[in-house]
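Lab notebook, bench 4. Still working through the backlog of constructs that have no structural model yet. Next entry is a single chain of 490 residues. Request: give me the structure tokens for it.
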Amino acid sequence: MITRRFSVALPVDAARAFAWHAQPGALPRLLPPWDRVRVRSRTGSLADGQVVLELSQGPLTLTWDARHDPSRYEADRQFVDTQASGPFAYWSHVHRIETGVGSRESGIGSRESGIGRRELGVGSGESGVADPTASCTLTDEVTWRLPLDPLSWPARPMVERVLRRMFAYRHWVTRADLSRHGQGPAMRIAITGATGLVGSALVPFLQGGGHDVVRLVRGTPRQGEHQWSPERGLVDPDRLGAVDAVIHLAGENVAGGRWTPAFKAKIRDSRVGPTQALARSLAALPVKPRVFISASAIGYYGNRGTEDLTEQSAPGQGFLADVCQEWEAAADPARAAGIRVVHPRFGIILDARGGALGKMRLPFSLGVGGRLASGEQYYSWVGMEDVLGSILFALTHDTIVGPMNVTSPHPVTNAEFTRTLGRVLHRPTIFPVPGFVLTTLFGEMAEAELLSSKRVLPAALTTAGYVFSHPRLEDALRFTLGRVEATPVA
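Model written out:
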């Protein structure tokens, strides 16, 4: 059998680090975005619980049944899971948390790119921990054996690489979340669009911080959910009770189809009317939320070439610009009721699970990716971790009011984006797509989304003191695509 240990210093005491792992959002947060893994079921606690995961690889789906070992459980110090059934002949994972900063810590970075801990946003210095008296060290010790060992030994290097990438990701997330969630008290937060790309990442992120998250759903609500209607807003607000914040993310995917008149109406109607209905519901509550975060997008600015665009810039022209203006104005009833309203204008969100990057992964991985048209148009992108971080920042900072550009401070041209993604994936990018092909295939959507140029800067966030986790494109891509590795300490 093979044993590997990976360690990371955490900027909190052992009890808090242990408690974070017990939160319902911790496990989903630790699942790498580049792998197709989902939690099928989870019961019990860290002491004696069971977790069943589904791992999809192409057409195949594997089930991993992990059980926590109560005989090896130590409160605030250690929990252990072992494989009851799954892809390994044997698997044991010891999660050990010790007070203070250990003498050895896994290196997190990428030799080939020169990416280190500072660039990955995990802090600088030897441990990244400012106060050793309020710190601890997390060590993950995994012991494993492959089926048909020793005949399966050629697969060992692949498994080792998977583990190095997985623990680089897990340790970054653990340290970053524990650092970020120290910014304010626990809140009760209601969220629409909780199953979308942003919502499905945001819910476990907030749960990991100890926040009580209520999913607002259109169908029959289950535990942890409350019903809302795009036409009427909140259904039975008395049953919902008081909430500190409402985050409104629901809306039709603008890249979900060709922009026929019917689909354009669907894009608009899924945003403007429901936002207004929800804002009116919040304004009518006897105990109003302190903040209403209602999504918007950088489509607000239209096609602006190389112009630097901040929240103070005038709106642009075109369908999306018009929709975004109506969308933001629809929150006026909440504003008039004295609720702080924030409009995160999301850029191109980079996450391996879906969105734009999810669609790019396959062609670029096959070596058939390339720039779009001239490639001179600016892409204002943002990594998912900074989407989550900026929303938390808006929740906890009363100075953030109105529009908030959620984009990296370093926008790039499409040509630079293409070259960088190819470099991260080790693939050529020599197949440009002519503009007329895009407009023929996608019509108006291609002009508005793929060929237009928006050089958007996050002035509101940076002025308020937000520090980006992944300000540079290559770092963000390597993080979400699993191209960063941790070095075992033993």
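Notes after review: Residues 110-130 have pLDDT under 50 and may be disordered. The chain has two domains: 2-180, 188-481. Flag for follow-up if needed.
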